[in-house]
């Protein structure tokens, strides 16, 4: 059964959140684009710079756009993925990975596709929107290709090695459903956690954004870490104001202190 734990004093809220986390047996961490933004990866709702500034990412990341001009959309993804590939895990990613070493069970449920949680050391990551490191042919018959599988191809987009059709990123485009296995796992883990820690998500992209409510309705204590209050903050039990890269390292230190006390 969750408890309402609001406190207007930030230090007290941090310590209360740390105490809740220290008692957690099953923690689910739910992350969004704000976590990756702190590593220099722009969100879809931010304006691009340079060559791509005049294009709306929300118009390019669609099956329709890819069918209309596959080479153009592929070039845009090469740009986006290049930025992500150059990024490094930030202190927020590292703090989340550290929680896994402190607590009995921690799972990360993320809307991000960049793999930075895994690079930071998190071992159980559910990727609700897919991965920039995996590719499939358009109709989905052949999956799981990596960049190395078509690195020698000069054609763009590259062709599927098995059927010859165009490859596409194995990510969720606007208008597409979430991968059933990832979605079902996220629902199950959200319903089974005793604490959910939300970091860097606006809570407006559904159905992924439903996970905190699933946790809340199942009785979990829900903690939201964000620079500003958002759609999820009104229903959470604790709100910690600030970017994850600043708040989470402090939170982890406080958790460690509670565990050692």
What does this protein look like?
This protein has helices at 10-22, 33-37, 57-60, 63-68, 70-86, 91-102, 116-120, 180-192, 211-217, 244-260, and strands at 27-31, 106-110, 125-127, 130-137, 167-171, 195-199, 221-226, 238-241. The protein is an alpha/beta fold and 261 residues long. It has two domains: 1-40 and 89-129 and 178-261, Rossmann fold, CATH 3.40.50.1220; 42-86 and 133-171, 2-Layer Sandwich (SIR2/SIRT2 'Small Domain'). The strands form two sheets. It has a six-stranded parallel sheet with strand order 3-2-1-6-7-8, sandwiched between helices. It is elongated, with a radius of gyration of 19 Å. The two termini are 25 Å apart.
Biggest sheet, spatial arrangement of strands: 3-2-1-6-7-8
Number of domains: 2
Output the CATH class name of the largest domain: Alpha Beta
How many helices? 10
CATH architecture of the largest domain: 3-Layer(aba) Sandwich
The CA-CA distance between the termini, in Å, is 25 Å
Oligomer: single chain
Structural class: alpha/beta
Rg, rounded, reads: 19 Å
The general outline is elongated
The share of residues in extended strands comes to 15-25%
| Largest sheet data | 6 strands, parallel
Total number of beta strands: 8
CATH superfamily of the largest domain: TPP-binding domain
Q: Helix coverage percent of residues?
A: 25-40%
Low-confidence stretches: 1-8
Determine the mean pLDDT.
Answer: 90
The fold-level CATH name of the largest domain is Rossmann fold
Order of helices and strands: HEHHHHHEHEEEHEHEEH
């Amino acid at each position: 059964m969750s408890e309402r734990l609001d406190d207007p004093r930030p230090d007290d809220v941090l310590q209360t959140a740390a105490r809740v986390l220290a008692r957690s047996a099953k923690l689910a961490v739910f992350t969004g684009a704000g976590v990756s933004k702190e590593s220099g990866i722009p969100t879809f709702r931010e304006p691009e710079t340079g060559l791509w500034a005049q294009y709306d990412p929300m118009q390019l990341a669609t099956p329709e756009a890819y069918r209309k001009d596959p080479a153009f959309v592929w070039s845009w993804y090469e740009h986006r993925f290049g930025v992500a590939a150059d990024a490094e895990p930030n202190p927020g990613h590292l703090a989340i990975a550290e929680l896994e070493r402190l607590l009995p069970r921690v799972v990360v449920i993320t809307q991000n596709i960049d793999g930075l949680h895994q690079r930071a050391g998190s071992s159980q990551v559910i990727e609700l929107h897919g991965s920039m490191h995996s590719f499939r042919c358009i109709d989905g018959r052949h999956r799981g290709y990596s960049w190395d599988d078509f690195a020698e191809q000069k054609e763009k987009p590259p062709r599927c090695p098995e059927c010859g059709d165009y490859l596409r990123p194995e990510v969720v485009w606007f208008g597409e459903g979430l991968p059933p296995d990832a979605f079902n796992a996220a629902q199950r883990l959200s319903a089974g956690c005793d604490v959910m820690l939300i970091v860097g998500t606006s809570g407006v992209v559904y159905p992924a954004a439903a996970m905190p409510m699933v946790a809340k309705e199942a009785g979990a204590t829900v903690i939201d870490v964000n620079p500003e209050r958002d759609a999820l903050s009104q229903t959470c039990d604790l709100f910690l104001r600030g970017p994850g890269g600043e708040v989470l390292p402090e939170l982890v230190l406080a958790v460690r202190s509670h565990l050692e006390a």
